[in-house]
Recover the amino acids of this structure.
């Protein structure tokens, strides 16, 4: 069965980035993205650590720097907070990707709720190359030497301490199955042999209303992480 109007690619930046990511090599840290916040943790993380230790991110709608005659970047000191997007649909180029300029900042960088400070040496502004159809991988590059390209992978089978932390910060997105047995539909909306049982906890990735029915794209972190579609009425 195929349901017209449903799509399997993330439609907004936050839908894509929400989740658990890790640098492809050379890092012991996990980056947990959720609703314009990035938490970074590793195996030394303690349950007593401060949950407020995070970085904010947004997408500037105006230029954050100018270039001089030698192509040196001269960053603005601040930009108005109403000149950024906290989420928006992707704006894809001819090859189906978007180059995102993500401004990362702390709560202390917000001035009177009206302006956001910009780091004047530039590391707070990162360049993300994202193909929404490739949902589990993106790369970051500063547009200089190819050796500076850094790949990130979505972690679908995270260590328990990482998943537990993510569930704490993303608790609004986790729901429990309310029936004894509910089968999952795949991305072509064909019924699969996979099913969930009452009490299973799933992460809601997306919601769509199609022909009067509310459908949820979900991810279940079990011995094998699976994704698919269920009806909204299947969860509490």
């Amino acid at each position: 069965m195929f349901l017209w109007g449903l799509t399997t690619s993330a439609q907004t930046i936050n839908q894509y980035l929400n989740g658990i990511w890790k640098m492809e090599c050379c890092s012991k840290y996990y980056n947990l993205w959720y609703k314009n916040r990035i938490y970074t943790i590793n195996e030394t993380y303690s349950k007593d650590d401060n949950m407020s230790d995070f970085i904010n991110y947004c997408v500037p709608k105006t230029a954050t720097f100018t270039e001089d005659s030698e192509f040196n970047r001269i960053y603005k000191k601040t930009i108005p907070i109403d000149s950024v997007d906290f989420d928006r649909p992707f704006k894809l180029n001819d090859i189906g990707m978007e180059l995102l300029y993500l401004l990362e900042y702390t709560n202390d960088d917000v001035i009177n709720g009206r302006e956001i400070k910009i780091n004047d040496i530039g590391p707070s502004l990162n360049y993300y190359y994202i193909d929404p159809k490739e949902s589990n991988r993106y790369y970051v590059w500063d547009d200089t030497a190819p050796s500076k390209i850094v790949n990130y992978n979505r972690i679908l089978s995270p260590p328990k301490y990482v998943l537990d932390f993510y569930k704490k910060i993303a608790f609004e997105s986790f729901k429990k199955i309310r029936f004894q047995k509910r089968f999952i539909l795949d991305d072509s909306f064909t019924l699969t042999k996979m099913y969930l049982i009452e009490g299973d906890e799933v992460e809601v990735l997306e919601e769509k209303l199609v022909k009067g029915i509310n459908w949820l794209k979900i991810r279940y972190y079990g011995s094998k992480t699976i994704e698919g579609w269920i009806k909204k009425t299947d969860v509490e």
Remarks:
- The chain has two domains: 13-156, 171-234.
- The CA atoms of residues 2 and 123 lie 45 Å apart.
- The first helix runs from residue 13 to 17.
